[in-house]
Amino acid sequence: MSDPAIRRATVLGAGTMGHGIAQVCAQAGCDTVVHDVSLDLVERGLARIRENLAKAAEKGKLSPEDPARIAGRIRGSTDLEEAVRNADVVIEAIPEDLELKRRTFERVSKAAPPTALLATNTSSLPVSEIAAACADPARVLGLHFFNPPAVMKLLEVVRAETTSEETLARALAFAGRLGKTAIVVRDAPGFATSRLGLALGLEAMRMLEQGVASAKDIDTAMKLGYGHPMGPLELTDLVGLDVRLAIAEHLERELGPAFRPPEILRRLVREGRLGRKSGRGFHESPSPSKE
């Protein structure tokens, strides 16, 4: 199932998630705009998209002609109002700051077409509070992609208190067009994936802190013993220790002490060991991310 009305997509944020989401939209045939606050950030995101497409072609996942064709559907912008003016769907992938997201959605709801689907890629913040900043909160919901968006098949669709049935139906159709498997969850703290994934990750950190096993062996246990493609500490390195710390602090406030961040997580973040993007986290990375 696909939604033929969604032909133009705008992604707000050209970082790790934003540029990946934009790539997915373009690969699905959408004319796509990538917006960020500076030209440097936009160009960096577009360069990462071109690199990812070239690597996919080298591996035989795309035809030799596909990278140029897909990249040709994507352009950058530093003007938010211009970027969303003709969008059929706007997907926000900016930093996990509730007030920043609310201010952004307030602007987007005024500038985007009244029929546009408005989505946030937040992994844990309350979608209903973000939607409340819009003139028409019925068209707002969460579309939580997973890293890397071009590879991961899951799309967590978060229904806010005010999300309409029509909005939900359009979002599910759009997920199908993107080639994603969608799950629908209620707007509850941490949704389904962040809540479960973080609970496992925090316990793995406590085990490391207590000397139960090494980071490598904890990750190996979950990969070989439970079939996880990536161990919980490896996943934390991929997501970013600072990102997981922020989510844990939010969920501790909302759900209680089970999500209290272990001291080892706070310490590593203070030391700048943020995972792959800094070159060091719970594991050493070959080289820091360009993000």
Question: Can you put this structure into words, describing what you see?
Answer:
The protein has helices at 16-27, 39-58, 66-71, 80-84, 98-111, 127-131, 165-177, 193-209, 215-226, 232-239, 241-255, 263-270, and strands spanning 8-12, 31-35, 74-77, 89-92, 117-120, 140-144, 154-159, 181-186. The chain has 291 residues and is α/β, with parallel strands linked by helices. It has two domains: 8-186, 3-Layer(aba) Sandwich (Rossmann fold); 193-270, N-(1-d-carboxylethyl)-l-norvaline Dehydrogenase, domain 2 (Orthogonal Bundle). α7 links the parallel β7 and β8. The longest helix has 20 residues, at 39-58.
Summarize the helices and strands and which ones pair or pack.
Elements: E1 8-12, H1 16-27, E2 31-35, H2 39-58, H3 66-71, E3 74-77, H4 80-84, E4 89-92, H5 98-111, E5 117-120, H6 127-131, E6 140-144, E7 154-159, H7 165-177, E8 181-186, H8 193-209, H9 215-226, H10 232-239, H11 241-255, H12 263-270
Parallel strand pairs: 1-2, 1-4, 2-3, 4-5, 5-6, 7-8
Antiparallel strand pairs: 6-7
List keywords for this structure.
single chain, 291 residues, alpha/beta, Rossmann fold, N-(1-d-carboxylethyl)-l-norvaline Dehydrogenase, domain 2, 8-stranded mixed beta sheet, 12 helices
Can you describe this structure in just a few lines?
This protein has 291 residues and is α/β, with parallel strands linked by helices. It has helices at residues 16-27, 39-58, 66-71, 80-84, 98-111, 127-131, 165-177, 193-209, 215-226, 232-239, 241-255, 263-270, and strands at 8-12, 31-35, 74-77, 89-92, 117-120, 140-144, 154-159, 181-186. Strand 5 (117-120), helix 6 (127-131) and strand 6 form a beta-alpha-beta unit.
